[in-house]
Amino acid sequence: MTWMYALLALATVAIILGVLYRPLGDYMAWVYTSRKDWKIERGIYKVIGVDSKTEQTWPAYLRSVLAFSAIGVLIVYGLQRLQQWLPYSLGLTAPSEPLSFNTAVSFVTNTNWQSYSPELTVGYTVQFAGLAVQNFVSAAVGIAVAIALVRGFAYRRSGTIGNFWVDLIRGALRILLPIAVIGAIVLMIGGVIQNFNGFTTVTTLTGTTQTMPGGPVASQEVIKLLGTNGGGFFNANSSHPFENPTPWTNIFEILLMLAIPFSLPRTFGRIVGDNRQGYAILSVMAILYVASFSILTALESAGMGTAPELAGGAMEGKEQRFGIVGSTLFATTSTGTSTGAVNSMHDSYTALGGMMPMLNMMLGEVTPGGVGSGIYAILILAVIAVFISGLLIGRTPEYLGKKIGPREIKLAALYILVMPTLVLAGTAMSFAIPGIREEVESTSIWNPGIHGMSEVLYAFTSAANNNGSAFAGLTANTPWLNTALGFAMLLGRFVPIVFVLALAGSLAAQDKVPTTSGTLPTHRPMFIGLLTAVTVLVTALTFFPVLALGPLAEGLM
Amino acid sequence: MNTQARGVGRTIWVATRAMTLLTLALGVGYTLLITGIGQLALPAQANGSIVTNEDGAPVGSTLIGQSFTDEDGNPLPEYFQPRPSAAGDGYDGGASSGSNYGPENEELIAAITERKTQVAEFNGVTEDEVPADAVTASSSGLDPHISPAYAALQIARVAEARSIPAEQVRELVEAHTQGPDAGYLGESRVNVLELNIALDKLEG
C-alpha cells in the first residue's frame, strides 16, 4: 500500500510539474528578456534611481547583489534588536546579538536556518516586515544570478550580463508575488491561519486551558515554500497544523517548492535558444530526485532501528495525517530544493533515512535545487562534466558554443570547493577545538553518541548549502554555533555567487564557436548520464568519510 | 579609486531605497492584502478553525490536538486519547515541537516501552496490538489525529466508562474516520477532538 501511495503521489507531482514546465518556464524567460517595463516598475526605478535600459558588467552586477544583501542583513538585524518597540511584538523582547545576526544572515542568504523557536522569539512585525520580505527578495536574487549566468551562455562578445535591479524587481513582482497571492488563498482554504490575534486561551473540552497561537501565517507560508526559503512561522514548521493542515495542502506545498526550480531549465533552454538543453538538465534533476525519494521512502517504511522497531513503525516525529509517504516526499523536496522546511522531524528518522536529507544537500542542492541557485549549481557541474569528457575523448571542451578554457574551469572548480570546505571545516572545528567541543557536547548536542555528531554535521551541511533544515534536537542558539553557522551561510551563499557572476562575465565576453562534428552534444542521454555521474561522484568522494563516521556507522551497527 | 568609491556609495544608496520600497510592498502591503482576503472571505479558517461544544462555547481548534487528562495528568477513560506530545507539557499551542529523539536514543526507547505498557493496560489489550502512533510523539506535538487502529483499540474502554453500548461508540468512530485525501494522499485518520465532542453530545 505504501508503494502504491508513493507512486501515485509522485505521479501527481510529476504530472502537475510537467504541465507547468513549458508555460512557467517560458513565462520566466519572457520576464527576464522583455524590453518593456511595466508602468509600476518604471515608477520604482525612478524612486530607487536606476536606469533600466543600462546593463551592468559582472563586477557591477555583483556589487549590486552584495550591497542589496548587506542592507537586507542590516534591516533584519535592526528590526530584531528593536523588537520591543515594534507593534504586534506579543510582548517579546529583542533576541540576543549573536542570535539576531544568525537570523538576519539566515533569511538574507535564503537559508532560513532557525536557531530560535519562533513562538518564543519573534513577533509579527519581525516576521512580516523582516523575514517574509527576505523570503521574497532572497529568492529573487537567486533567480537573478542564475539568469545572469544563462545570459553569459547566450550573449556574444558582450561586456555586460544584465541589470541586477531590473532582474530583482521583475522576479519579485512578475513571478513571486502573483503566485504567492494565489497560493496564500489556496492555503487559507485548506485551513492555514491569517490573523493578528496573538496568543489566545481557550477552555478545552475537559475544562483545562490551552494556548492557541495566531499570526499572519498563510502570507508567509506560501513564499517560504515558493522561494525555497523554509523558515517556519512556528517552531514545528510545516508539520504545525496551522502551517500545513491536511494531506492535500501538503502536496500543494511540495508543488510550491518544486514549481520554479523544475521550470527554470525551460527558462534556461529558452534563453540559450535550444530547449533540448533544458530537457537534459531537467532529466538529471528528476533522476536524482526520484532516486532519493525512493530510497528514503524504502528506509522509513522498513523502519530499522531500536526505537522504530519497538514502536512498530518509524512514526516518532511524523504526523498521522501525512504518514510515511507524505513525510518522505516533503523531506526529499525540501532538502533537494534548498528550502529546508520540514513536516516531520529529521532527527527522529531512522539512521540511514536521516542520511538521505543530508545527501540531498551534499549533492550541492541540484535536485532540483533552490530557486535560481539550483540551476546555476547544476550549470557549474555541467561545465565540469564537459571538461572531464573533453579530457577523456581528447576534444576541446565547449558548452553551448562557449569554450571552457582555463579561466572558466578554474572558476567552476573554485565554486565546487567552497561548500565542502565549509561543511567539513565547520564540523571538524566543532569537535577539534577543546573549548568549543565542550560547549557543543554539553549544550548543543541533544542525542548522545554518534547521532549527536550527525546533528552537528547536518547543521553545517544545511548552513553551507543555504538549506535551513536541521536535526532539530541540536541547540544552535549558542555563541559558537550562531556565529560559525552564520559565517557558513554567508560564505556558502556569496562566495559561489562571486564565481558564478565571474563565469557569466567571462562567458558573455566570448564569441560562439560553431558546432562541428567534434562537438560533444550536451542534450543526449549520454551527457545526461555523464552529468548525473559527475554530480554523484563529486559528492560521494567528498563526503563518504564523514558520513561513515555519522549516519552510516549508526545505521549499520 | 575615487570613482570606484563613489560607485559603491551610490550602489548602497540604491540598495537602501530598493529594500525600503520592497519592504513596504511585500512586507506590509502584501500581508495586509492577504489578511483582508482571509478575514473577509475565509474567516473561519483564517482565525484557526475554532470548534464549539454543545453549548456553543469555543473548546479548541479542529486542527490542533489537545490533552484529555485529569488534573494529575492521568488519561480520562471516557475520552479517546491522542498521541503522546512533545509540545511543552503536552499539546501546548505556544510551544510546538517534536521530541527530536534519534532512533537509538535510550530515553526514547524507555518512553516507548513505558507507553506500550500503559496503553495496553489502560485499554485491556496486549502490547502487540498497540499501533505505532499510540506510542510515538508527533512532529508538531499538536497532531489532532490518531490512526483508525488506535481509535478501534479504545472503543471498549470509552464505552464502558460512559456506560453506553460499544456499538454506538464504534459507529461514531466510523463516522469520524477520514480516508486519505483523494483516496491516496496521506493516511486514514480520526480527529480526536471532534470525536470526543460528538461523544459528549451523544450523552447531553
Describe the structure in your own words.
The complex is a heterodimer of chains A (557) and B (204). Chain A is mainly α. Chain A has a domain at 373-556. Chain A contains 20 helices and 4 strands. In chain A, helix 15 runs antiparallel to helix 17 (450-464). The model of chain A has no long low-confidence stretch (mean pLDDT 96). By secondary structure, chain B is mainly alpha-helical. Chain B has 2 domains: 2-44; 48-203, no CATH class. Helix content of chain B is 49%, strand content 7%. Chain B is built from 6 helices and 5 strands. Chain B has helices spanning 2-41, 43-46, 106-123, 148-162, 166-175, 192-203, and strands spanning 50-52, 58-61, 145-146, 177-178, 189-191. Chain B has a 3-stranded antiparallel β-sheet. Chain B is elongated, with a radius of gyration of 24 Å. Chains A and B meet through helix 1, helix 2, helix 3, helix 6 and helix 7 of A and helix 1, strand 2, helix 3, strand 3 and helix 6 of B.
Write the layout of secondary structure elements.
The complex is a heterodimer of chains A (557) and B (204).
Chain A lengths: L1 H32 L5 H10 L9 H24 L15 H12 L9 H4 L2 H31 L9 H27 L9 E4 L5 E4 L4 H10 L20 H26 L2 H28 L3 H6 L11 H14 L14 H12 L10 H21 L4 E2 L2 E2 L2 H27 L1 H11 L5 H15 L14 H31 L15 H25 L1 H6 L1
Antiparallel strand pairs in A: 1-2, 3-4
Chain B lengths: L1 H40 L1 H4 L3 E3 L5 E4 L44 H18 L21 E2 L1 H15 L3 H10 L1 E2 L10 E3 H12 L1
Antiparallel strand pairs in B: 1-2, 3-5, 4-5
Helix pairs in contact in B: 4-5
